[in-house]
Amino acid sequence: MEWKCLQAITKGLSLNDLLNQDLIDNINENLDGKCVEAITIQLRVRDEKLSKDSEYEIISIANRNSKDTLLKQVIVDADTNETLNIFIDAINKLEE
């Protein structure tokens, strides 16, 4: 088995910040005394044109535990440095 995962940690970001706020609000308004919190988001980077030989990479953006959620600490996992850096740059732009 081969593991080639790269990881970066960002602080000050909730996974809910990456979701549409209207979606979160619509769910929360129906939860009596509770609220929804995202803990894992997975994305797939793939060839634009799909074929049987298409390759893809799964990117995970997650909290490892409830402490990460409380501290607004998000972990980004990727298979390549290039993809990891693309996602880190995109997240940093959200914080500007």
Largest sheet: 4 strands, antiparallel
Number of strands: 4
Class from helix and strand fractions: alpha+beta
Strand arrangement in the largest pleated sheet: 1-4-3-2
Low-confidence stretches: none
Shape: globular
- What's the Cα radius of gyration? 15 Å
Number of helical stretches of at least 4 residues: 3
- Average pLDDT rating: 88
- Euclidean distance between termini CA atoms: 40 Å
* Helical content (DSSP H or I, runs of 4+): 25-40%
Instruction: Please report which band the strand proportion falls in: under 5%, 5-15%, 15-25%, 25-35%, 35-45% or over 45%.
Output: 25-35%
H/E order of the elements?
A: EHEEHEH
Description:
With 96 residues, the chain is α+β, with helices and mostly antiparallel strands. It contains three helices and four strands. Strands 1-4-3-2 form a four-stranded antiparallel sheet. It is globular and about 50 Å long.
